[in-house]
Amino acid sequence: LITDLMDKLTHIFGQGLSNSFYPVPQQAVGVGSAFEGWSPHAQDVVYHVLVPLSPPPGHAFHLELDTAGMLQRNFCVRVELLCTCTRERLEEDMLCFLHHPEEELRRKQDPSLLHTLCTGSYLDVEKTVHWFCRCVRVAWLLLPQSRHWRLVLQPCSRSCKFQLSKDKESFTAEMIFAVQQGDSDIFVGSQPTEVGIPSTTWLETYAVAEAKFFRHISRQAPQDSCHCKCLQLLTGFLMGVGFSSYALKTVVMHLLSTVPLTRWHRRDFGQRLMDILKYLRCSVDTKQLHHFVVGNASFPTEISLPSGFRVAEAPNLFEHLASSPDAHRKAVQEYNCLLHR
Fold first, then answer.
1. Are 47 and 179 in a shared domain?
2. Angle between helices 245-258 and 207-220 (to 10 degrees)
3. Which of these three, 146, 172, 205, is where a domain ends?
4. Its family (predicted)?
């Protein structure tokens, strides 16, 4: 239902925006645990979908590195106006924003993206999300599902989150908006983050590349492969323990690249669980857990990464353990707590 719904919403957006200068949504991509097959809490699952945005006619997006953090890079999306005089002569469907008088543009054409969803020259996350949420509310009424399902938008400044319910059924979906880095599977996205981040900041996200990695593994693994079941079980145990589900997912992805897939049958479940726990303990002891996508020379070549990604220095997800003895001591305690659950 969720993928079909997103496809229909994107189609309606495309039709409604064909003569405007708002970002153009592309086909949504399901990401995260619900689409990778290991969601730990079936009753509380949130379906995360990433919606790539393309620039409207007469505009271009340029990604500018904002701050290079240890674990995640931040970008700004600069919006540039392009000359469309040639297109104007050929198709007569729009006036050039650069070479027509402002008064004529105001009278005959919708405003450029710079005057709607930008702060200065940069695409604003919060303005973009607020505008798309309004579009979702309108587009929903045009879908046949609206006759049977009830949609409730949930307030969020950096994503479009909503709940759909019918009788005793309900599920939650969260749309993250993103701009692609070149033609790769790495994006900069609007995903929620710490309070206080500027609204023109977009965070680098590896979610699409990771989702494709899980599909890549599923095509090659045995039909009764236990890798998702291992991850599902252990992330369920993590409730109330300090390790993030992303850290555990990173451990499993590393092991899927090193332990032959022929050793992930259902009968190998117990041994693979032990491998995961041993890898996690070793990472805690050495205070190092390397990022799986960045700096991984063995990452599948069929998944497109920006130039230099595979040979870059891999960020350490456990950098905080190396810099804080208290954090390391607590991680050891939490690991022992996880073992005894």
1. yes
2. 40
3. 205
4. Belongs to the ITPRIP family.
